[in-house]
C-alpha cells in the first residue's frame, strides 16, 4: 500500500470511493510480492500494480464491480485459472488478490495510518479477507489497526481482537507481512477467519562508512532501493551534504563510535546494512569490530584480496570468532566486472539483494526451476522492506 498511499489518501479525503486490490499471498514465480497494491478510482483512474501487467485488466474490472457492489472479493489468479491465463499470467505464478471498496466509512482510520507510515511510526493494518461461514460479527473487509502501544477498530469479537493484537505486535516488531488464521472467537488453532496483516515500519537503514566517490554512488542506489541512507566519516572536509546530496544524512564522527552509539540507542536492527568503504585500517578495523558483533542484515567492506586477508588477521586479534568473520562480505559486491563507482554500487546492491533473498548471484539464463522462492523456502521472504515497501 505504501507506493499508492498518496493517491489513496487524496481520493479518500475528497470523498471519492476507490477499489483497492492487494496481493495477500503468492505461490511459485509470482510477478509481484504480497502487499503489491492497485487502486481504481470511481472515475476509472488506476494507479499501482498487482502483477506487473499480467492480470491488471481483470483486476481493474473486478475493482470497478466492487466499488458498485460494496462487497469485498478474494480472487485467485494463476495459470490454472482460464481467465487469468487469458490476461497474461503466464509466468507460472499464483496470486491471491483481495479487492475491497475504500472510502471514509469503510476505512475511517486511513488518515492516521497514512500519518504513521509517513513519519516512520510502526503500524499494522489487519484486514479480514475471508471467512469459512456466515458470521455477522466478522466479514471480509473488517479492519483492525495495530500500533506498538494501542489499537483501533475491531474484527467483530473482543477475544479475536485480543488474540490478533498480541500476535500482530510480534509480526510488527519483526517487520513481517502475511496471513493469519483464527476461529471466530480468537482460537489460534482454527481457520474460520483469514486475516491479512500489512506491517509498515520505518525504512531499513543503510550505513555507508567512508566519504569517497564510491560512497556517493552507493548512497544513490541505497535510496533507490528504499533504504534510509547515512554517510559517515571522521573527516569533516569530505563528509559534507554537498558531496552526498541524495543521502538522508551525512555525519561527521568516528565510524565505530557512531555505529556503537546507534546500536545502543536501538536505531539499527536486523534489516540494517553496513558498507565500509574507507580503505583505511584505522577506520575500517574498529567499525567492523562493532558491526560484525551486531545482528545486521549485511556487512561488507571494500578492498583487495590482500587487504581482506590483512583485515581478517587484525579482526581475529580483536577477538572476533570465525563465525562472525564468516558473515563479512569482503571484497564487497558480486563479480560483475565493475570498474566505475556507479558499476561498483550496482555490484554491492546486487550482493545485498542476493543476501536478503537467498539468491545465488548466478545468471538466471543458466539456471533451471522457479525464478522466485516461496516464503517458506527462506525466512527472509516473510519479512517486509522493502521495502524495502
TrEMBL record:
Residues 364-389 are annotated as: Disordered. Gene3D superfamilies: NAD(P)-binding Rossmann-like Domain. InterPro entries: MoCofactor_Util/Proc, XdhC_CoxI, XdhC_Rossmann_dom. Residues 206-352 form the XdhC Rossmann domain. Residues 11-78, 117-183 form the XdhC- CoxI domain. This is Xanthine dehydrogenase accessory factor.
Amino acid at each position: 500500500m505504501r507506493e499508492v498511499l498518496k493517491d489513496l489518501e487524496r481520493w479518500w479525503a475528497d470523498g471519492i470511493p476507490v477499489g483497492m486490490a492487494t496481493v495477500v499471498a503468492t505461490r511459485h514465480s509470482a510477478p509481484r510480492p504480497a502487499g503489491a497494491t492497485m487502486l481504481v478510482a470511481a472515475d476509472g483512474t488506476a494507479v499501482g500494480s498487482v502483477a506487473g501487467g499480467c492480470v491488471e485488466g481483470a483486476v481493474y474490472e473486478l475493482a470497478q464491480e466492487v466499488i458498485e457492489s460494496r462487497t469485498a472479493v478474494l480472487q485467485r489468479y494463476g495459470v490454472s485459472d482460464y481467465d487469468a491465463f487469458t490476461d497474461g499470467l503466464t509466468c507460472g505464478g499464483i496470486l491471491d488478490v483481495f479487492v475491497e471498496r475504500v472510502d471514509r466509512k469503510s476505512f475511517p482510520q486511513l488518515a492516521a495510518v497514512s500519518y504513521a507510515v509517513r513519519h516512520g511510526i510502526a503500524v499494522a493494518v489487519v484486514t479480514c479477507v475471508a471467512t469459512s461461514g456466515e458470521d455477522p460479527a466478522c466479514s471480509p473487509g473488517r479492519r483492525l489497526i495495530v500500533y506498538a502501544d494501542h489499537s483501533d477498530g475491531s474484527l467483530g469479537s473482543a477475544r479475536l481482537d485480543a488474540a490478533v493484537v498480541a500476535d500482530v505486535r510480534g509480526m510488527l516488531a519483526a517487520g513481517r507481512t502475511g496471513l493469519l488464521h483464527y476461529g471466530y472467537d480468537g482460537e489460534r488453532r482454527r481457520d474460520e477467519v483469514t486475516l491479512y496483516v500489512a506491517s509498515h515500519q520505518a525504512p531499513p537503514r543503510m550505513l555507508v562508512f567512508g566519504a569517497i566517490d564510491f560512497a556517493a554512488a552507493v548512497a544513490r542506489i541505497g535510496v533507490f532501493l528504499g533504504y534510509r541512507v547515512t554517510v559517515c566519516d571522521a573527516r569533516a572536509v569530505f563528509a559534507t551534504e554537498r558531496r552526498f546530496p541524495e543521502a538522508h544524512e551525512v555525519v561527521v564522527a568516528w565510524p565505530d563510535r557512531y555505529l556503537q552509539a546507534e546500536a545502543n540507542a536501538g536505531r539499527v536492527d536486523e534489516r540494517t546494512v553496513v558498507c565500509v568503504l574507507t580503505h583505511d585500517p584505522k577506520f575500517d578495523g574498529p567499525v567492523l569490530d562493532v558491526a560484525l558483533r551486531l545482528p545486521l542484515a549485511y556487512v561488507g567492506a571494500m578492498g583487495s584480496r590482500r587487504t581482506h586477508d590483512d583485515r581478517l588477521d587484525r579482526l581475529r586479534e580483536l577477538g572476533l570468532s570465525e563465525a562472525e568473520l564468516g558473515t563479512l562480505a569482503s571484497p564487497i559486491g558480486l563479480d560483475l566486472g565493475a570498474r566505475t563507482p556507479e558499476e561498483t554500487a550496482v555490484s554491492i546492491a546486487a550482493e545485498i539483494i542476493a543476501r536478503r533473498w537467498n539468491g545465488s548471484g548466478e545468471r538466471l539464463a543458466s539456471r533451471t526451476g522457479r525464478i522466485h522462492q516461496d516464503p517458506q523456502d527462506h525466512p527472509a521472504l516473510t519479512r517486509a522492506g522493502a521495502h524495502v515497501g
